[in-house]
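2024-03-11 09:14:02 INFO worker-7 job=invfold-0412 stage=load source=structure_tokens
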């Protein structure tokens, strides 16, 4: 499977709309600690925006809503994987991406035949406190050897320059969060990402 090489992650449908408007073709909606009605509204809007743009929307964590709302893609962390109903997710036709941070998590991820594997943090990240040290580019190359044809997403501390380096090291996709959301000109930054990863 071939995926777009730039994959930003956002916490609202407004951000999804902004990304799609500048040409992003794969985006994750990652919303935490939000009431279910508001979640449903955000996911529905983001789903419709992505469909209209011919883009991929990946819903983080909320697998029941992703099934209910007819979404196409789901991303789960290792903790989410403990609670998720994988047979129901597969029966609904959802494609699945999984987070990994060490060898045991990668083995576990590969055992459920994911549609992509994410490795992180490749560099130090300010998004959330991580118990794992930065993985580095050698780990990106090692992970790619291990996952084979499964697309590999590099995440954590990426900038456009680091994203290019991760792709050169073997990642198929580069992902970013705060490099865009904290940038004074997010649209220009996303255009830079698209140019670097294109």
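2024-03-11 09:14:09 INFO worker-7 stage=emit residues=198
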């Amino acid at each position: 499977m071939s995926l777009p090489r730039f994959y930003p992650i956002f916490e609202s449908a407004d951000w999804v709309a902004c990304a799609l408007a500048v040409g992003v073709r794969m985006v994750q909606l990652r919303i935490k600690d939000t009431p279910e009605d508001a979640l449903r509204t955000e996911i529905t809007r983001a789903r419709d925006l992505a469909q209209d743009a011919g883009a991929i929307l990946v819903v983080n964590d909320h697998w029941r809503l992703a099934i209910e709302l007819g979404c196409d893609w789901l991303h789960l962390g290792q903790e989410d994987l403990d609670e998720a109903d994988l047979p129901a997710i597969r029966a609904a036709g959802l494609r699945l991406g999984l987070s990994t941070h060490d060898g045991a998590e990668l083995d576990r991820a590969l055992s459920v035949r994911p549609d992509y594997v994410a490795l992180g943090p490749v560099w130090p990240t300010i998004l959330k406190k991580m118990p794992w040290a930065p993985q580095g580019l050698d780990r990106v190359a090692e992970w790619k050897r291990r996952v084979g044809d499964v697309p590999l997403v590099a995440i954590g501390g990426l900038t456009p320059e680091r994203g290019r380096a991760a792709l050169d090291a073997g990642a198929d996709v580069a992902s970013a969060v705060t490099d865009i959301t904290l940038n004074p000109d997010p649209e220009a930054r996303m255009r830079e990402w698209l140019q670097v990863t294109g």
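2024-03-11 09:14:09 INFO worker-7 stage=report msg="The first strand starts at residue 6 and ends at 10."
2024-03-11 09:14:10 INFO worker-7 job finished
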